[in-house]
Amino acid sequence: MSNSAAADPAPDHAGQVGPIIAAHRDRPGAMLPILHAIQRHLGWVPGAAVPLIANALNCSRAEVQGVLDFYHDFRRAPPGRHVLQLCRAESCQALGGLALEAHARAVLGLDYYQTSADGALTLEPVYCLGNCACSPAVRVDDEILGRVDQERFDALIAGLRGVGATA
Ligand code: FES
Q1: Rounded to an integer, what distance in angstroms lies between the CA atom of residue 2 and that of residue 21?
Q2: Of 92, 95, 139, 147, which is best to mutate to test ligand 1, by the most ligand atoms within 8 angstroms of its C-beta?
Q3: Annotated binding site for [2Fe-2S] cluster
Q4: In terms of Cα–Cα distance, which of 40, 47, 37 is closest to 4?
Q5: What is the Å distance from ligand 1's center to 91 Cα?
Q6: How does DSSP classify residue 65?
């Protein structure tokens, strides 16, 4: 499994982020919009983007890296084919989220921000999916699910395995 931002597997990402930076660089407070736009486009923020953003915004690489590190929502490595997010906010915690979280980690053998060895699944925490009335809530890729107990979670993972995800 991997959760590190090791060497960029595709250095040509620099060519992809350049136009994104150019499109947002003149906005007020451009750094966050640039980082969000890169992650929307690639699914993560490659290290190659850091010096390019620093040059465009006339700031240091350390400043860009600091923002990137501060916000955990920015991925520093490519995600798996499926991203599974568990809600850790109050309502979900109060209604079984902690037990679900422990179950998920044990079943998947993953901690947060880790990706399974086959690249199929990335596990991430999230803080409220806006689905509190149906806690505990989980997001799989773009789909938000509610009232996810351990049995439903296992069925969900089995379904993902059925389309190529093995955790
Ligand atoms: S607290 Fe989990 S969806 Fe709101």
Answers
A1: 27
A2: 92
A3: 87, 92, 128, 132
A4: 47
A5: 5
A6: H
Domains present along the chain, CATH in parentheses:
13-70 (no CATH), 82-163 (3.40.30.10)
Single-letter code of the amino acid located at 115: T
CA of 86 relative to ligand 1 center, distance in Å: 9
**Which residue from 91, 95, 101, 126 has its CB within 8 A of the most atoms of ligand 1, so it is best to mutate?**
91
23 alpha carbon to ligand 1 midpoint, in Å?
A: 34
Helix orientation angle between 31-42 and 61-70, rounded to the nearest 10 degrees:
60
* CA distance linking residue 116 with residue 110, whole number of Å: 7
Do the strands 114-115 and 143-145 form a parallel or antiparallel pair, or are they unpaired? unpaired
What beta strand segments (E) does 46-95 contain?
82-87
pLDDT in tens, the chain (167 residues): 544 444 444 556 778 899 999 999 999 999 999 999 999 999 999 999 999 999 999 999 999 999 999 998 899 999 999 999 999 999 999 999 999 999 999 999 999 999 988 888 999 999 999 999 999 999 999 999 999 999 999 999 988 877 544 45
